[in-house]
Structure formats: structure tokens, C-alpha cells
Amino acid sequence: MVRHCFFLLIYLLTGYVIKAQQTPEMHVLKFECSFNGKPILRDDSLRNWVNKPNFYFTKVRQYISGIRLLRSGNEVWKDSGGFYLIDFLDSEKSKVLLKTQSKDFDEIQFIAGIDSSVQVEGVKGGALDPVNGMYWTWQSGYINTKIEGFYLENNEKTTVELHLGGYKTPNSTAISVALKNVVPAAICHIQFDISPLLVTMRQLKINKVMSPGSHAAALSRIWADHITAQP
Amino acid sequence: MKRIWIPILIVALLSAFRDDGNFFRPWPEKVYDFSNELQFKERVALGRVLFYDPILSADSTISCASCHLQYTAFAHVDHALSHGIHDSVGTRNAPALINLAWHSHFMWDGAIHHLDMQALAPISHPGEMGSSIQDVIMRINRSGKYTALFLQAFGDEKATGETMLKSISRFLSTLNSNQSRYDSVMRHETVFSPQEKRGYSLFRKHCNACHTEPLFTNYQFVDNGLPIDAKLHDYGRYAITHNPDDSLRFKVPTLRNITYSYPYMHDGRFENLSEVLAHYDHGIVIRNSTHAKLKRGIKLTSAQRVDLMAFLLTLNDKHFLFQPELGFPMK
């Protein structure tokens, strides 16, 4: 009887260990957008912009795809073809839940945008459904980054519209991002610093970019170059 | 063993070349072939209802068929420029919708690169349907009319942007014209008249480089020497690519059903084919981008013009114009 109980115990323990090994790790990538270290919110005024106009955001959206986790340069997990539309102004729509098989990684890679191969395929559903307002209507292609808002200067309102898209070289706006020295955590904060982008626009006196081209590509590069993983 | 193939090849060539000198030109592979999809027929049926339904426009007055009428080869003969809601006028001529499954780019400037996405442009254009895909989906889902159709076509009674656009593109892929007199001649079911044959020779010599058989377009973007319209300032493909080399290039339209789909050119400036031939005879503006074959014009005698016209008439396909499956869905 004791022997039977012993074997039953061993059996149950073994099953528990195997199950524990198979249980996926849950990681949340929390995408955040900040200006000079301060998170931006809908209709939030940024008062420390260049020459101190007040800037208000009405829309800050970004496509994310091709998420990979790596350890010492080796891939330990890869998202199976997921496309995510991040709405930085909506805390519920700025998270991506990853069900991985590994909790040990030190690098996160993703594409800030939609890969060109997907851009030339037909209509898609889910996050890629054109009803999400991220597909151009006057031409074909996804808008990878959409930033809209306005600023007030001398009581004058100026609208800012950045629709950054385009998938053809040399003006592709889908940028590969690699964040190294990441500390694995249940919630990994991925922070986009919008300050350099706004400052550049201000310096170049650009308020609208609505089509693919060199401006869109250059601004996308600046936007993607200021992404960091925060503990 | 190899010698066996020689007489077979000769017989095959002889059967292809008949005494009328015509060579059967096989159709290229389609760019879009959705026919293997499950529920393809149901999707086409749904797309057809949507094509004829003004629910796609902001004030429910304009449908796709308002500017693309079947009896004019899915073109619009009433106006040079397309019309939209509130009597708005566009900047381009509504092109004929023929054999779209063989095309990789759409619109006069090739702005749209997939058939699925074509309907987005007129739906959203303020001078056409003046709506948005979000509003269209809301109206469709509220109407109740489409519940069963979407369920049959996609297994879900609720429309989405994806399913709505897919159904329209499936219908568009069925707008195929291949029953013209020209097609009958190429299938060796009949022969050209002597006049048509002379016109065909002229066509092969002067037109076929761009209006390439059997679809009568080479799908390319070409500057055919039209003077720039002082009001429209339309530079064609340049607006999409921003490449100076693309300035004033427009997509080569098919010549199938040409006499039904007037007026001609991207801005509908020519009312009839005589005006078109006159342009190619003496109206071409020579500039760097003008197509090389057009720089000396296409000089034809009066008799040759009549012969060429006779051939162009063989591209008409009345079966396409009255094919019941493509018409207004009565039920």
C-alpha cells in the first residue's frame, strides 16, 4: 500500500514538473510614449517643447510586428506572425501579451511598422483591418506611425499630422528595432521618446507628412532610434 | 525520339497560323485567381450586391455602378470626369472595369496595388462617395440587409473592413470580357473581314506595343503626348512615385469594348475615336517623357483610319455588356 502511494506521489510530482515546464511564461510588453521623460496623455499639454508652445496630442498610434526574444544573440522565442496596433493614448491598447516558452532573455527585437511583404498582400483583418484607419485610401499601403495633434502659439492653433508610411526602398518606414540588455520582467516597458521627433519637425518647420517619401523615412528613423526598454 | 517532336511542332504551328494570318495569343496568368476559395460564389454574390448599393456613399446616393455601368463596359459615358455625392466633380475619367484580375495596379496613376484595396479609394474620396470605411461598415451592419449574405460568404453575419473589401474584389475579378469578335477570330471560330484584317495589320504596327494583345494593355504607365490640362494640372503617376521620370505618365487602358467606354483619356477629353486618332496623327506634344513610338505621330490615311476603326469594333463584347450575372441583383 505504501509502495503504491509512493509511486502515485512520484507520478503526480513528475506530472507537475512537466506541466510547470510547459506552462508558458507570460510577459507583457507595455508600449509607452514620453516627452522628455514624461508620459504623454490624450489632450495633455506639453509645455516644454522648443520655444515653449503648448502641444496637444489627439492620436499617437504605431504598428508593431515581428516580435522576437533573444538570449546572448540567439533567438529563444518568436511571435507567430502577430501584428499589433499600439494606441499610446489608450492604456488598454498599448499592451502586447506574449505567451513565451522562455523567461530567460536579454534582448527584444521587433519591427516598428509593417513589413513590405505584408504591405503588398491583399486586405487583412484584425489589427490590419482598414477600419482601424491605418491604411491609406488614396494609394495603397499601411501607415506605420500616425501622430496627430496641434499646438498653440500666440493664440494661434496649428495642426500637426504625421502619417508615416511607405514600404519601398529607399523610403521604407518599417524600422527594425533591437533593444539589448533587457532585464526580463512580467511587464517590460518599451518607451518611445517623442521629443527628438517633435524637435526635428519644429526645426525643419514640418507640420504635415502625409505621403511616403524621404521626409517620412527620415522621421521614422528618428522615431525608431529613440526607443528604449525600461525596467 | 527527338525527331518525333519536329512534325508535332510543325502541325501545332500550322494549326495556330491559319490562312487569315492570325496567331492565337494565349492569355497570361491572372494576377488574382480567387476561384479556389471556399465560398467564392457567395463572396462574389455579396460583392455584386455591394457594388450596386449606394450604401457605400456618405448620403446613400452613389454606388459603384453609378460611375461604372455594365452597359457601358463598366465605364461612365455621361461625363468626362467622375461624379460624386452632392454633384461634386472629380479630376479623372471613370475607367472601364474589364479583366481586372490580370492587372497588378489600378487607377490611372496606379495608386492602388491590390484589387482588394481598390474600393477604398472611391469610398473615401470626398469628390466621389465621400464616406469612410468605418462608416460604411457601420451602415452595413445596421441595415440588416446583409446579415445572411455575410454569414454565407464569410461565416460571420457581421461585416468587417476585410470581408467587405474582399467581397467587392471577388466580384470585380469576375468582370471578364473575352467574347468579342476578335476573340472568336483568335479561337478560329470565324475570320476577319478584309477591312478588319487591314485594320488589324495597322493595329499590330502602330498600337500593339502599348495596347498589347490579348488584353489590349501592357499595364504600363505612358506619356502619350497629351497637352497638360491647365485646370486639372494632373501629372499622373508622378503624384504617387514623386519620380520626375513618371511625370505625365498614365496607365495604358484596355481597348476592349472601346466604343462603349467613351469619353477617352484619363480626363475624358476626347468624345469619340476620331478625336483620339486625330490626336495621335497631329496632336502629340513632344517632350522627354513622350513615348518613343509616338514622337513622330501615327500618320494614317482616311482609308486606313476607317480600317483601323473597323478592327477596333471587333473588340466590342456585347455578351459582357448584358451578362446577367454581372448586372443589378434583382433579388
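qc> The CA atoms of residues 137 and 159 of chain B lie 6 Å apart.
qc> done
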